[in-house]
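Objective 1.3, modelling of assemblies. Example input:
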Amino acid sequence: MSLGIVMLVHTAFGRAEQVARHWAASGCPLVIHVDRAVPRKAYDAFVRSLSDLPDLRFAKRHRCEWGMWGLVAATQNASEIMLREFPEVRHVYLASGSCLPLRPVQELIDYLAARPHTDFIESATTADVPWTIGGLDQERFTLRFPFSWRKHRFLFDKYVALQRLVRLRRRMPNGILPHMGSQWWCLTRQTLSAILQDPERATYERYFSKVWIPDESYFQTLARQYSRQIESRSLTLSKFDYQGKPHIFYDDHLQLLRRSDCFVARKIWPHANRLYEAFLTDQAGAMKRTEPNPGKIDRIFAKAVERRTCGRPGLYMQSRFPVEGRENGLTCAPYSVFEGFSDLFENFESWLARMTAMRVHGHIFAPERVEFADGQTIMAGALSDSAALRDYNPRAFLASLIWNTRGERQCFQLGPKDMFQAVEWDIVKDPNAQISVISGAWAVPLFQSNANFADIRCEAARLQQIEAQHLKVLRSQWVRAKVRIWTMAEFIESPMEPLQAIIDEIGKANPRGLAEVPRMTDLTGFGQFLQVLKNQGMHPYLMGDFSAEAGLHHPSDGQRKPYLVR
Amino acid sequence: MGIWQSYRMRLRRKRAKVRAFRKHFSLRPVADRTGDIRPGDVLLFSTLRDEYVRLPYFLQYYRDLGIGHFLIVDNDSSDGGTDYLARQPDVSLWTTKASYKRARFGVDWLNWLQGRYGHGHWTLVVDPDEFFIYPFCDTRPIRALTDWLDSSAVRSFGAMLLDMYPKGRIDAAPYRAGQDPLEIAAWFDPGNYMIRKNRLYGNLWIQGGPRARVFFADNPKKAPALNKTPLVRWDRRYAYDSSTHMLLPRGLNLTYDEWGGERASGILLHAKFLDRFTAKAEEELIRRQHYAGSVEYRAYAAHARDNPELWCKWSEKYINWRQLEILGLMSKGNWA
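Predicted structure (tokens):
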């Protein structure tokens, strides 16, 4: 009879009765407090259902609203009854109707008997813990909170703002240092009676009744005044989500709870029949416990909170649609964009695919269709190659492509002929993008084409304009992608060094350097071609300086392959 | 949102309520067991026509989830489904011969019934070919979800439509009454969805999936909307504005997070593409009772004649909700 239970109940009376009987069966006296908001009829029925238990008292009913004083008043009152009526009780355990004892009650009694002077109450100073939700940490002790946060949110907020404005402050009575922590504690008779019989109790009550969420600070602060030995942890397993509301346990948590090392868990869903059955009726079975692993519970709930607050980067879906700037990255994984390379090299895409483990697509923003790798018409995730579908929402298209191929780096070609304008800024602002540009390389296909020169001139002017605009974007101050730009003249001076650098950065290349080099297009006469364009009044400048004399940048066809000395 | 726009939305909501009132006169009760509804029951509302073959499995699926009562509007069925439904102990049935289209595709009827019987209950609005999936649905009844939503002060729960289809021709495998349609239509498109935000109503407009890929590849704007908010803690002031895609007041449409996090959401597995689909598409084309001049059914009928295969090599076979969660089609949010 050394352990007494104070139980706060406001709903699910069937379960509360079950748990109360469970405690009583092990000889623990109980004092139960029922919220005043519960209708008279339900209350009476509950009292009647438990009338056969001898060591059970009901406390005077208070109105218990979350975050308000009523909860503390109820606890005080019930604790007083407990201390008065059951003099042999040494530890008082505060529990709720939705708490479930995980280990045999006798184990808890033995555990406490071995520590007769220890108070188990989580209690930390506000400065040291980041627990509080909603920005009220120190202020919950220095401002007044007479309005309910649940019911009168507007008044609550306005009154806080007003007090901040006029810098209204409260002083701690008797210079105590406020502490806070879990509402569920287990205190010794000595400490609890010292708190309840303190001559200054009225002063503290006056103070704490206007504090925000006093049930998490009243006992936590005062226990520090009187306790001989505090163990600052709760014996009740209770996890809170990011809004400060407790996580609920269901049937499928059974294995998890078996691995907990806590004595009591909260909060249990009232219809979790398997849990109640396992822990209340089938004690022997429930206690066939595997190795305790409380960290697993922590991880699961921490992950849930993280998912709710940060989400999975690069995922756009029905319940995650971040506004601009809060995406945490447009895409979920790094990818590479090559501009001009496939114009300059004849076999660039197949070469790149051989050299790296990337999936190398063609121009996925080409006007006619999406040029997926290997000429596929449908890509991972059942993305269609229809240009109309892609252009309908190019952002979603790109994000989906990268999301659907998680685990495999993607790479695609881009050029001024493509329809990328709608996603240009998205790519440029995406830290996952690695963009490599050979400016002016779009002229090579024109140079090789068999079109009328007037058309070529026209097209060259158009492409140059588009690319110039694009380069401006790539050089803007909002760029977060990894951008490298070479003029074509610069690049062909020593093509392998930049290629090696890009591929090194991708990080999947052969460590001994590139075994094979891509074949460069024959540029004989390209300088001449540019000169003709100039002579026609269209100045191609993005490719850098090419001499008009043929053969200057003549790639030695078949004689000498460029290689890199490392 | 300015005052003027809020007022416009209010007028719209009122108009929906008035429409619901006007249209309810055409509903004739066949079996009214609404007296059996207990407080706290999750209620299912549906409107259907000639779906007898689907009903046995449909009812069983939702009974297993823990639906307390079914409230169904039968739009002039002629296949015997009416009698079948009327015999079920947990179904209240109304029938009407009025136009589905004029009742705004059934929304007016359901708005009325929800206002009348759904007030204070969690209500689930689904079609007979839609199967509601939510996080942990294999281990927790729907009541666990609604209790959790209640404790989180959330009033509505989104679930995207996920079109399911068979491998091979749509009409290859016949569907038998009582069979799980997902045995046949087991495949879906895992990652080709496009989302836009509707600034006026605040809801997300989701398109994509096999219907956009096959039937609307040239005209994606016309592709059907896939966003739905089927599960709502109903209040008599609420109204669906067009099908279950949009709700009023607008706050109910905010089932997504805009600050980078994920809210919990579910999926409606849409087993529309079974062997009866081709015949139904042609019939609906003649009835012309569907949205936007039945543009959807016109597109289906045109394609369905030559190549009714939606499956492709990147299609995924449905396993369970965890698979959908990993693919990013739905989310657990902070429910654990």
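Chain B touches chain A through 58 residues (CB under 8 Å).
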